[in-house]
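Example record for the data management plan.
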Amino acid sequence: MSDRLVVIPTYNERENVAELHRAVRDACDFDMLFVDDSSPDGTAGAVKVLAASDPGVGLMERSGERGLGRAYEAAFRKVIEKGSWRRVFMMDADLSHQPVHLRGLDEALDDHDMALGSRYIRGVSVLNWSILRLNLSYTANSYIRAVTGMPFSDCTSGFRGIRAERLESILSGRKHAGGYAFLVEMLHRAWRSGLSIREVPIVFVEREHGESKISAKVMLESLVTPLRLRLTGTRHSARGSAGAQ
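Corresponding structural encoding:
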């Protein structure tokens, strides 16, 4: 068992989990926890097949309200309860996050509380996106920085690492965002709590299989969340760094 854990939320990602598992295993020996929101396509069953031959693979099956943020919250509480992992990493199941970058995120945690995989710290490191999609992402990050005051180039990145002992500060207090906006809320909580945060350059690749989970509701939540965070008060002696490692 590793003291590093990669948390991977899933919903209808059956086509991707085996390939993702192989890629993670090629990159590192970290444990993996798939958090499945009752995928109707049989994602959980595919993960169970992997777990049967790899003791480092775990599965958390969730029912009820779905959402990326809710999945991460459930996984983080499991990490805190179990107390076996020292570092926790977050990544998508759609193969857009390259496992080869896990080592870079891990190294950044040697002297930082959180590592943020950034697509924009060294120009633009995104493959197979349309100009429209790229402009939307870049504009969203500009909007978040302007409203919240956070200095990071990629506030919406879901490829991250955090020291396990810092999860309590992320989960404390009332949380609102249950979807992708959880990523912005989590980063803002870490920044305001004074955690040291380092951006690490990554290359992002558009998914080849499956469909995006972004809906109109998710888009609205992402628009409103920075405004709500702005109203929560001023920054608390944050030590966030926007520089690359």
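Summary line stored alongside the record: The CA atoms of residues 55 and 121 lie 36 Å apart.
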